[in-house]
Automatic annotation (TrEMBL):
Pfam families: p450. PANTHER family: CYTOCHROME P450 FAMILY 1 (PTHR24299), ISOFLAVONE 2'-HYDROXYLASE (PTHR24299:SF63). Gene3D superfamilies: Cytochrome P450 (1.10.630.10). This is Cytochrome P450. InterPro entries: Cyt_P450, Cyt_P450_E_grp-I, Cyt_P450_sf. One of its GO terms (molecular function) is iron ion binding. It comes from Phaseolus vulgaris. It comes from the Eukaryota.
């Protein structure tokens, strides 16, 4: 009983901290629903997600903010807003978030998938386009890719013969 009482007081304390001491770092965010401590807005999202996002955009506007746990997510739900984001603010939005996995697996976020936009990323992209996916390299690996594709198609055909099921594409 004491543990339940302590848990209730602790959760109440977290809510009061959130209400009375909002973080100043995120003061200029777009509007969005109230977020809970630790989980953010994850409990408010219901499937199908596209309908939930449509309802949120009708309530908060074309641009709104959500918290997925400790991560801030800004949702642009209009084609004109997305086009403006990618034409006027493309450099700002080109960076990728830094995750703990990227630090340990991707050599401190230094691979092309995890590095931020800048000189290092442009250098990696140049190497990738000239050495890995150039026309000569793709032509040289054509037979290998064709054989692997045939293996994949045979495996998919075999699996679909054993466990065939209908998929409703209307939802």
């Amino acid at each position: 009983m004491a543990l339940l009482y302590f848990s209730f007081i602790f959760v109440l304390f977290l809510f009061s901290l959130k209400l009375f001491f909002p973080t100043r770092k995120f003061r200029n965010l777009p509007p969005g629903p109230f977020s809970y401590p630790i989980v953010g807005n994850l409990l408010q999202l219901q499937q199908p997600f596209h309908r939930t996002f449509t309802q949120l955009s009708q309530k908060y506007g074309k641009v709104f903010s959500l918290w997925f746990g400790p991560r801030l997510v800004v949702v642009a739900s209009s084609q004109s807003v997305v086009q403006e984001c990618f034409t006027k603010n493309d450099i700002v939005l080109a960076n990728r978030p830094h995750f703990l996995l990227g630090k340990h697996i991707s050599y401190n976020n230094s691979t092309i998938l995890h590095s931020c936009y800048g000189e290092h990323w442009r250098h990696l992209r140049r190497i990738l386009s000239l050495e890995v996916v150039s026309t000569n390299r793709l032509n040289a690996s054509y037979d290998i890719r064709r054989d692997e594709l045939m293996k994949l198609m045979q495996k998919l055909a075999h699996v679909s013969r054993n466990d065939f099921c209908k998929v409703d594409l209307n939802t």
